[in-house]
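FW: tagging you since you asked about this chain on Friday. Here's the raw sequence from the shared folder, copied in full. Didn't touch anything.
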Amino acid sequence: MSAPSRLARRMWHQLEPIHAVLYFSPQGFGRAAALGYDVESRWPSYFAYRTAPLGRAGTRLATAVYYSFSPRMIAEQVPAVWEVASPGQVLRARLEAVDETYRHLLGDGRLAGQDVAEAAELARRAAESVRVEGRPFAAANLDLPWPDEPHLVLWQAATVLREHRGDGHLAALAAAGLDGCEALVSFAAAGAAPVENFAGRGWSEQEWAAARERLAARGLVEAGGQATERGRALRDQVERMTDDLAFDPWRLLGEERAGRLARLAAPFLGAVFEAGLLPMTSTLGISTIQVAD
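HL: got it, structure written out here
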């Protein structure tokens, strides 16, 4: 892995959990429930919170930007989420949820510290430098007004940067000729995450099996479902391209300031993991998260 790829990957590892806590925290579910969403499942609030920056998105737009979710599952969630609350109401609720989550995890005193203000400034600088061509999730989040509180600026910047990377990842999957279900099957076949981790994406056993057969016909998986050498090489290509496409904001910020951001944001990362809010197994292929020294 090249030095630029390593930096892009490392910063993703540092910032992804800071963003993702919204979808798992009690405060996130509480705010969603107050809007009227059913929180017995995490998906209604997830689709509402994550899709809201796009406005009142319909099924086709949501299918396009989510890519590896079953279109059938998307159709069950979007646009139904807007019948419960408008995108504007959801955007206000998600910021309130993030605020409550981090005040609970870190306390008002730590959030008011100079380190948080500096982290927010660095993260915002990186986020505002991203190019948005072909990056709908990143662009939509970057169009939102910046919050006043530094810890919310940090979270929103982390959101822009992770969505910027995610948009690039979908481009890499498309370039590799992998459709939504094939992307997951090939990922699991390479050992990046267990098959059961993807059960929530809505694909049926028949659709999963058909995707595996298509990959086998291309010489990418073996009969038992394990990736072939060619299959592993293709997944490596996808991940390298994802890192390369995510590098630009870190190139512009510079390695020294990126490292400084990682160190300043480490208390947020540590608090999320110490609270046990995120799943022990991930669909992202992150087996370990290293907090910056």
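FW: DSSP finds 15 helices and no strands in the chain.
HL: agreed, and The first helix runs from residue 3 to 20.
FW: great, closing this out.
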